[in-house]
Amino acid sequence: MTPQIRLNTSLSHQIYTSASQLPAEWDSVSNTVFLQRDYLELLENSAPENMQCFFIGLFADGKLCGVALSQFLNLRTVESFGDRDKCLKTKIRNLVFKNFSSNVLFIGNNMLTGQNAFAFSDAISENEGLQLLHHAAAEIKKIVTEKCSKVHLMVWKDFTSEQISKFKIAGFNAFYKFSTQPNMVFDIRKNWFSFDNYVEDLQKKYRDQYKRARKKADGITKRKLSLEEIEYYNPVIYQLYMTVSQNASFNTFYLPKNHFIEFKKLLGDKFLFYGYFDEDKLIGFNTLIKNGCDIDTYFLGYDENCQREKMLYLNMLYDMIAYSVNKGYSRIIFARTALEIKSSVGAKPVDMFGFIQHSNPVLNFFMARFFRYFEPETIWNERNPFKD
């Protein structure tokens, strides 16, 4: 824990290096599970090896009025950024990242999609909070530089177009505003009282897709796994997770082998782990996190051959929708990746933005050009599966 830094007579911030140091009133500021003490403690204890977490408290007149999460990632320790793309451009990108952009400081959660970076109470304005966080981020950057190595990139993520407008008046002119793949969000209609209502609202083409997927998965059984079962199947679980992760186009981390075990231990029923079995063999899994009125999808894994043959991923999406509708949730946060297939089941894209700054002024000047080269626009077709 660093000494409290005071910017004026009423506002100050403090940086914590462990969730055990957080003030007693921490959870009163934010309703999202991803900024509350239990999750932050869990994140600290089961974070990827190349990640270090920092927690930021904002104070007005000595009272906690804001909470935030920061993560430092050392990408040089990631053996593979992703094995899917073997082209020359990908090799150049990986080389550049390793040598010029390997140390990245995030304000936000690089393991999730959405605004899980900070929350403010009514005791502080958003402008004041952002300015205070800006100072805190600079201090964390200094701490990392002194203890480890130079921070190459500072990234603030993920914000909607409405949220991003507040940053311009809070001193972010030196940052490049960027946008990557959207967050796929599934809104559950109020007239859906069961999953059958969802299926009834699908156009014929997409009802046929649903029926075909279910038929393909005939013989596959799904069940919610207990902590003891997660521990028992953990070697297979990790192998299935790595199959999916290594097939991604880009990775900044790999989960440690105890990650799902620790999540189940600490979050209990807020963390749902579903296993998919072909007879007695575990061939896939998905995970969900209860977050108020939302269901957040988390990591998953599957056997690649079974996925193709059994349409396993599509069936997982339907199962996630079925659970959320039947349990009365309002939204499913499907996050990034697989945009078109998520769109085909009813998820809608929400554009997400962030700010990025390189510590080298010359490289930062050309950030817009570099970013467009290394992160080209994703071309995909949005679907509308519903009758109206």
List the helices and strands and how they pair.
Layout: E1 5-6, E2 11-16, H1 37-45, E3 51-60, E4 63-74, H2 88-100, E5 103-107, E6 118-120, H3 126-147, E7 153-159, H4 161-164, E8 176-179, E9 183-187, H5 195-200, H6 204-216, E10 220-224, H7 227-232, H8 234-245, H9 259-267, E11 271-278, E12 281-291, E13 294-302, H10 304-310, H11 312-326, E14 331-335, H12 339-344, E15 348-350, E16 353-358, H13 361-365, H14 367-374
Parallel strand pairs: 5-7, 13-14
Antiparallel strand pairs: 1-2, 2-3, 3-4, 4-5, 4-6, 7-16, 8-16, 9-14, 9-15, 10-11, 11-12, 12-13
Look at the structure and give the CATH class of the largest domain. Answer: Alpha Beta
Q: Biggest sheet, open or closed, and with what strands and sense?
A: 9 strands, mixed
Structural class by SSE content: alpha+beta
Spell out the CATH superfamily of the largest domain.
Gcn5-related N-acetyltransferase (GNAT)
Number of helices: 14
CATH fold title of the largest domain: Aminopeptidase
Mean model confidence by pLDDT? 90
Structural features:
about 400 residues; alpha+beta; Aminopeptidase; 2 domains; nine-stranded mixed beta sheet; 14 helices; 16 strands; globular
